[in-house]
Each structure stands twice: as C-alpha cells, then as structure tokens.
Amino acid sequence: MMYQEPEVDLSVEYCGIRFENPFVLSSAPPSDSYEMVKRAFDAGWAGAIMKTTSVESYQVDISYPIMTSMDYEEKKGVALGNIDNISEWHMDVMEDAVRRLKDEFPTKVVGLSLWGTTNRDHWEELTKRSVDVGADLVEVSMSCPTDSPFARASLMVGQVPDDVKRVLGWVKERSGKMPVVAKLTSQVTDIAEIVEAVEEAGGDGVCASDTVHGLLGIDLDTFIPNPSINGKSTFCGVSGPVVKPITLRTLAMIAKGSGIPLAASGGATTWQDCAEYMLVGASTVQFCTAVMHYGYDIVEDLQEGLAYFLEHKGLKSSKDLVGKALPNIVAHGDLLVKKDVVTSIDEAICTKCGMCYYACRDGGHQAYELAEDGLPKPDPDKCYGCALCVEICPVECISLVPRR
Ligand SMILES: Cc1cc2nc3c(=O)[nH]c(=O)nc-3n(C[C@H](O)[C@H](O)[C@H](O)COP(=O)(O)O)c2cc1C
Ligand code: SF4
Ligand code: SF4
C-alpha cells in the first residue's frame, strides 16, 4: 500500500507570526548557538528562542556541574534539575546567530530571550538591538529561578506584578512592532494577577510556565543535595515530564481568564503532550528537556504524530485544537455530585498481583475480597467508583462501568 501523508495543516499563529508547525525550541542549552539551531531547523523545528542573553559588560557566573536528575523506578529522568544561568554568550554572539539564521531560514521563527537584571539601560539596549538585528520576537525572562534581582532576592521578576510591569514597560518602549513575550512562572498565588500586569504593560504574549523551583534529591551518604559543587548545593529549576500537570494548569488558568497569545513551556515530550497543551490554549509548544534527553530528531515523530492525530479526529489544522478543552474545565463546586460508576475487572487479563486489593483496602473503601484462586472480587455495594484501583492496576484490566 502506498504511504500517504495526512493532508492537514500543521502551521499555527502566535503573536501574529506564522510558525510552520507548533514545535519550537525553548530558550535553553539546545538553542545556545547558530550551529545548534541550524541543525534543529534542518531537523524540522519551526522556531527557536535563543538561550537568554545579556549585554557584553554583564558577567555570567556558572558553577559546574549544573545538572541533576530524578529517576522513578526503572524510568530515567522523569525530572531534570538545573542550576544553569543565562548563556555565557553575550548579545553580540546572539545577534550574529539571528542574522545568519534568518538569512538561511527565512520561514523559521527566531526569537531572542533577554536578561537585563535591574538595569533599565540594559533592557532598553538589548531590546533595540533585537529590533535592529531582525529578531521575530523577544521573550523577557521573568521565571529564571537562579538569578533574581530587585529588592527581594529570593523572588523571580514574574512573581511580583510591579516588577513585571516595570521590566516589560522598559522593553515595550523600545520594541516597536516586534512582539514582546513575558516568560512566566507557575509559582505564584494568582497567575491572573501576573497576566493582568503583562497586559497593562502592553505585553503581546505569554510563555508559561518554565521550570519549577525545587530541590531534586539529597545524597544519603554525604547529606549534600544534588548537584554538589565542592560539598554545597542550591535550589534548582525542575523540568521534564514531572512538570507537565503544572504547565497544563497554568496554561488553562491563563487561557480561561485572558485572550493573550500563549506559548507552552514545561514538560512536553511527545506529540500527545503538545496536543494537550494546545487544547488548553497554547498556540506553540516549546521543548527543552526532551531535546536534551533524546536529541533534535524527535521533531520528526512530533510532526508525524500530530498530523495523524488531526486526520484521525477529522480536523484540517492544528489551529483547530487551540482552547478546545477549556469549556470542559470548571470549578470544583460546579461538578455534578454523583456516585454512579463502579469497578469492573477483565479477569482474563488479571495477573492476580493483588495491588487493587491493597490499594482499595488501605486507600479506598474496602470493596475487594480476594477469592481462593487470588482473583480480586469487587463488591459494587461497597465500591464508591473512586478510580484508585483503575489507576494503579499494572495491566490496566480494571475499568469503571455504570452502576446498575
Ligand atoms: C539546563 C537548562 C538551562 C535553561 N536555561 C534557560 C534560559 O537561559 N532561559 C530561559 O528562559 N529558560 C531556560 N531554561 C528553561 C527552559 O527553557 C524551559 O522553559 C524549561 O526547561 C521547561 O521546559 P522543559 O520541561 O521542556 O525542559 C533552561 C532549562 C534547562 C534545563
Ligand atoms: S473504584 Fe475505589 S472504591 Fe471502587 S474498588 Fe476501586 S479503589 Fe475500591
Ligand atoms: S491490580 Fe489488576 S492485575 Fe493486579 S489483581 Fe488487581 S485487577 Fe488483577
């Protein structure tokens, strides 16, 4: 049979810019040089935000090693922790990269990510130079956990509405028609208040929601957290699959309250993740950890997977996904109060491992008996339909069915 590619349009629009597909490199190590981004563009990425840069007089201090990771059971790297800083390359190197990339790849999107600490002159200079060199957009880095300015040194810019307005205001003064995006953190009490500050300052878009500030693990021999630098460590930015639920919620919260263009960043590994982020309002999806783990070539699978998914759903364009799950997210109090499903087991598949029995006995509603041959037997009168056993069964042979 002839292989036929799905006839769908993967292109999306974000901040008035066309991206040939939704897959973009986030500002991070995979976008730290012309050579790297060129390879990524050749592989199929639609755009890249260069790693965050600064003026030439700014000293970038980085303590190595910068990486640590968290495994769970057999799975490597469900979370990555980093104590990286912004790029060691200053604006002159990034300007050169943008010039060459835009020249060689006119249909790809190249953004710059800026960092000017508390210095208005730095922010203004970086913005003007971004416009002059022809960057498609700039991201204002407000969510970096390792470099926090202003009076409250433990806070990120994106955690203080006044600081968000102040920095974005400086950038917007010099940005002309070039879109300005605020890269925000999820670690705030009220993301709506932060987005309001972005809108008041004239921000054109938001990227949400970066890493989550954490401590990834502590060596039980030495009592030193990871990564250890001469016996000391510090808090890190946690990225990768573990942050996906946080990114999804942050995007949904923003999209439900505002129409500002949204880019997703945090936890995307597969085309399914991408589709989910788009369903809660993102137009583009940025990748960092997945590329650091598996390489640029994952973009082939991402494009193919999304194209087949759209075809399967009878959709013509990836734009059709944007925001489609939002009406299905309501406040907890608006959910129907009901208890009308019960558990049902496909006994032909059950391995008699007993996990459902213990989960329900000690974390559910004591609905299971174990038969003499080891098969779990749920009692529908005791089952609440809580779904705990469904979620933990290793062979996925439990489902919820209507209560009779
Ligand atoms: C080692 C490392 C360095 C990073 N450096 C930057 C940076 O310079 N500027 C920035 O905005 N984000 C930076 N990030 C954050 C990523 O761009 C991205 O927002 C975050 O890792 C979450 O996405 P992911 O789960 O796809 O990795 C960095 C992330 C990592 C892992
Ligand atoms: S759905 Fe909940 S209450 Fe019902 S059997 Fe499973 S764990 Fe027990
Ligand atoms: S967890 Fe699944 S496989 Fe294990 S006993 Fe229960 S139904 Fe069977």
List the helices and strands and how they pair.
Elements: E1 12-14, E2 17-19, E3 23-25, H1 34-43, E4 47-49, E5 67-72, E6 75-82, H2 91-104, E7 109-114, H3 120-133, E8 137-141, H4 161-174, E9 180-185, H5 191-200, E10 205-209, E11 212-214, E12 236-239, H6 244-257, E13 262-265, H7 271-279, E14 284-287, H8 289-294, H9 298-312, E15 341-345, H10 355-363, E16 368-370, E17 376-378, H11 388-392, E18 398-402
Parallel strand pairs: 3-4, 3-14, 4-7, 7-8, 8-9, 9-10, 10-13, 13-14
Antiparallel strand pairs: 1-2, 5-6, 6-12, 11-12, 15-18, 16-17
Biggest β-sheet, characterized?
8 strands, parallel, barrel
Any idea how many domains? 2
CATH H level of the largest domain: which superfamily? Aldolase class I
Question: Any ligands, ions or cofactors bound here, and which?
Answer: flavin mononucleotide, iron/sulfur cluster
Radius of gyration: 24 Å
Query: Any idea of the CATH class of the largest domain?
Result: Alpha Beta
Helix content: 25-40%
Distance between the termini: 46 Å
Shape verdict:
globular
The DSSP helix count reads 11
The number of distinct β-strands equals 18
CATH architecture of the largest domain: Alpha-Beta Barrel
- The amount of beta strand, in percent, is 15-25%
- Average pLDDT, rounded to a whole number, is 95
Class by helix and strand content? alpha/beta
